[in-house]
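Bug #77: duplicate submission created two jobs. Keeping one. Sequence:
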Amino acid sequence: MVKQTLRTFYVLKMIASLGASFAFSTYVLFLLDKGLDFFQVNVINLVFMASIFLLEIPTGAFADSLGRKNSVVIGYAAWALAYLVYFVSGSFWMFVLAEILGAVGACFISGAFEAWAVDTLKFKGFEGKLEGVFARGGIYSSVGVVIGAVLGGYIGAVNLALPWLAGAAVLFILFVISQLIMTEPYFKRKPLRLKSTFDEMKKISSASVRYGMAHPIIFNMIIAGFLLGVAVQPWNMYWSPFFKDTLNVDTSVLGWMFAAISLFSMVGMHFASRTLAKLKDRKNVLIFNSALIAITIAISAVIGAPYLAVLFFLMHEIGRGMWGPIDSALMNDHVPSKQRATVISFDSMVSHGGSAIGLFASGLIANNYGIPTSWIIGAVVLLMAIPFLMRIKEKKR
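Kept job's structure:
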């Protein structure tokens, strides 16, 4: 039964990443092709982050009140619709609509999917370490990303809108599959009465926010996640135009570049548990990751030699890949089951608030001072997370 749950978790992670990643390598190029500048591209993504900031806690409370499976299924449906809107769109405001729909989908999925996996595994007697589960889940997710990004690069070379259509088709299939294979036998759904449901969601939301702010480990993790959210935006948004112009390559090559990004991230996920075994403490791994990410990004921005810049950019993905499973396991080990989806959503909300700030600031910086400057400033912001990580003190496990 545990193996079945793990298999479901990994399969859904891989299909979701496959569907989403068709547009990953051509996303910014698609918007630039429609006449937007760097700042407008970031504003489009800012809408996504701001929507997530507003919706994370209500959707997390929905999942904790009405079922994590229901929340995830709704999320996949909204995600598929967002990709379809992008495919048929050609204007700024239609892109805004697509980003809002995508944010709705992401919020219904984010805390709920992790919470469903952890509580279903515990219900079925799982006694292993969550770091391994999240690391393997990340690897399966990266496999989906590699396949989707490479295919998306070739499809985008034909027409930059077509990756959105391919993504919409896969995400719709995912919506159907998740409805069929996800189970939640332990969850006791309350009757759907509008007032009582909203009261329950409000109660869970309030308790979860108080818990997150008061818990010394969760609070410092949330602040570190906020700073990470600010820092990564210029790297996420501008890698494709930066390397396309630097290396003077065809659009189809960017799919392979994104595949390489995913592979280096997988390396980080693979070595997460081994690094933890050497550094002993999860906070030490996250501090190491912060330094590794910041240093390699800064070198990539200033080194001047194109292929060395690519190499150091790829190296920063090792740190980011390692961060995910350690962060998820640490958070889930200190969150009560009844509030799991909401507390994780609260963490995600704050992180995406940081992402919104990072998008706005990096868009202005890139437009006025260039992409490399925005990358270096992001690296400095990430280093500011280290003092908060140093304050985390876990008991011996």
